[in-house]
Design a protein that fits this description.
This protein is an alpha+beta fold. It folds into 3 domains: 59-70 and 318-389, conserved putative lor/sdh protein from methanococcus maripaludis s2 fold (Beta Barrel); 87-228, no CATH class; 232-316, Elongation Factor Tu (Ef-tu), domain 3, CATH 2.40.30. It is built from 4 helices and 21 strands. The chain has helices at 2-46, 120-157, 170-195, 241-247; strands at residues 57-63, 67-81, 85-86, 93-98, 107-108, 113-117, 198-200, 205-210, 217-218, 225-229, 233-239, 254-259, 272-279, 290-295, 307-324, 333-338, 341-346, 349-352, 356-360, 368-369, 382-389. The strands form 5 sheets. The protein has a 6-stranded antiparallel beta barrel. The longest helix has 45 residues, at 2-46. It is elongated, with a radius of gyration of 48 Å.
Length: 395
């Protein structure tokens, strides 16, 4: 028991000594900090004074010259046909002949027969209709002759009274005239059906697909391929409404067409002159772009689905500055040197190319800054290191 009490007494003495050491260490750290701070203040007060004058900013400036510029854009367009026409007969029949070019990619000239079906049934129908016309015409002649005799007999008996319609055979004559008109219409329909056994087109066409073969039975309800009119091609390109507005694009505006080709040989690829046919009346729901419908160049070798580059341009702008992209401090302003200091000025942007910003000319004063300027240095005086002319371009 005595040994345990002695051990506890020794432990308490050790804890007290450790606490005193920690307090002494804290006092030394605080005192050292106060001493170092005082020493620094004394050293600073006895050292050289700092200059209150701000350091100059060294910049490069551009002295622009006015020029002319025509804003232009390159759009991606695709050749399309106004419509794909289904190959389908207007009468039922078995194919007896077809054009050798009635194959995918074939060209058939205007007026040529694509294919023809067996005409015998339609020739017989035409003969039958013509015989009905002849019969109705003969009945009408006989009815009119009988009516004339009845009218004469009536007038001998009743010279002062007109012959009634029944005596004059008017109902019978009108019925026969109606039958004759129907027979004549049947003749016209039979002639039309007979002509439709030969399927032709009024324009030169190119065949997209065809499944017509000799001996095949075709009906008007079936579709046996399709074609497009060779002169019915157009180019569709889309762009932002702002570009159409800024370039003044409208129906009749001139454009250039370049056929996209990965080959290094540019022969036959353009550029070719063309015109805008119309500007779309509404924006696309998904892309919010406005379509341009463009005519295909004359003597072209374009087919539907071909991608082309469409170069569109606006009017000529006179008195503009062509500034490098580095000259723009913000999206709409530049820095210029004025009375030895920086001055921010807003510019009127006309066009943006790959490496230049075209703006309306303005007073450049001491030059337009083309080097980077930290925002915190704006109020400092400016030292111009290099003056770049517009012909040299940015350093």
């Amino acid at each position: 028991m005595n040994r345990m009490l002695k051990a506890l007494h020794v432990s308490k003495k050790s804890e007290t000594a450790a606490g005193m050491v920690q307090i002494l260490f804290v006092i030394l750290v605080v005192g050292g900090t106060i001493g170092v701070t005082t020493l620094l203040k004394l050293t600073a007060s006895s050292g050289p004074a700092l200059s209150s004058a701000p350091e100059q900013i060294v910049v490069d400036v551009l002295m622009p010259t006015t020029s002319t510029h025509t804003a232009a854009r390159s759009l991606t367009g695709q050749v399309e046909s106004r419509a794909n026409v289904a190959i389908s007969p207007q009468v039922t029949g078995r194919v007896v002949s077809l054009h050798p070019n009635l194959i995918p990619g074939g060209t058939i000239e205007a007026g040529e027969i694509l294919f023809s079906v067996e005409p015998t049934d339609y020739e017989i129908a035409l003969k039958r209709s013509r015989s009905e016309v002849a019969g109705a015409a003969a009945d009408l002649t006989q009815a009119k002759a009988d009516a004339s005799n009845f009218i004469k007999d009536w007038q001998r008996v009743y010279p002062d009274r007109p012959a009634p319609s029944l005596v004059a055979k008017e109902p019978q004559i009108k019925a026969i005239e109606a039958r004759l008109a129907a027979a004549e219409a049947a003749v016209e329909q039979a002639q039309t059906n007979l002509a439709r056994t030969k399927v032709t087109t009024g324009s030169t066409v190119r065949i997209i697909e065809s499944s017509v073969e000799v001996g095949q039975l075709l009906s008007p309800s079936g579709q046996y391929g399709s074609y497009y009119v060779a002169d019915g091609l157009r180019i569709r390109a889309s762009t932002q409404y702002g570009i159409i507005r800024d370039l003044g694009l409208k129906a009749g505006s001139n454009v250039e067409i370049i056929k996209n080709n990965q080959s290094s040989n540019n022969g036959g690829n353009g550029p070719y002159p063309a015109k805008i046919i119309s500007v779309g009346a509404a924006l696309d729901d998904r892309t919010q772009l406005q379509p341009l419908i463009i005519s295909v160049p004359a003597n072209h070798n374009l087919t539907p689905g071909t991608f082309v580059t469409v170069r569109v341009s606006g009017g000529e702008n006179i008195g503009v500055f062509a500034l490098p992209a580095a000259a723009m401090a913000t999206r709409t302003s530049v820095w210029r040197v004025s009375d030895g200091k920086l001055e921010e000025t807003t510019v009127n942007i006309i066009d943006v190319t790959e490496d230049q910003v075209i703006v309306r000319s303005f007073d450049a004063k001491g030059g337009i800054v083309v080097s980077q300027v930290p925002t915190s240095f704006v109020k400092r005086p400016v030292k111009i290191r290099d003056v770049i002319s517009a012909s040299e371009g940015p350093a």
